[in-house]
Amino acid sequence: MSRFMSKTHGRIFVADESKIPAVRAKIKELDDFEYTYLPDNFVTKWNGKIETTYGHKFEIDMEQLTEACWNEGIWIFCVTGYRDPLAYL
């Protein structure tokens, strides 16, 4: 299991911008609790650059989400960045 971790930077990229609502719905279906922590701009269209954003408390299983989306023909690419070392002081 590979999860986004609290207080890290990351992003979920889609190939087709029109699929963003479907990815958000899949997140809600897989983990309704974590969906409440999904930042508004966390799912975005891939523009060729890895630009992450702060994930706050969003901690969904990236592998489970990727498999569920790919099984429905939705290409996603999950990036988990780094922890803010000062967040745990």
Describe the overall structure.
- The chain has helices spanning 20-30, 32-35, 62-71, and strands at residues 8-14, 43-45, 53-54, 76-83.
- Strands 1, 2, 3 and 4 form a four-stranded mixed β-sheet that branches.
- By secondary structure, it is of the alpha+beta class.
- 28% of the residues lie in helices and 22% in strands.
In a nutshell, what does this entry contain?
This protein is of the alpha+beta class and 89 residues long. It contains three helices and four strands.
Task: Summarize the topology.
Layout: E1 8-14, H1 20-30, H2 32-35, E2 43-45, E3 53-54, H3 62-71, E4 76-83
Parallel strand pairs: 1-2
Antiparallel strand pairs: 1-3, 1-4
Helix pairs in contact: 1-3
Which features characterize this protein?
89 residues, 28% helix, 4-stranded mixed sheet, alpha+beta, globular, 4 strands
Q: Number of helical runs?
A: 3
Which radius of gyration do the C-alpha atoms yield? 12 Å
Tell me the overall shape.
Answer: globular
User: What would you call the structural class?
Assistant: alpha+beta
Largest sheet: 4 strands, mixed
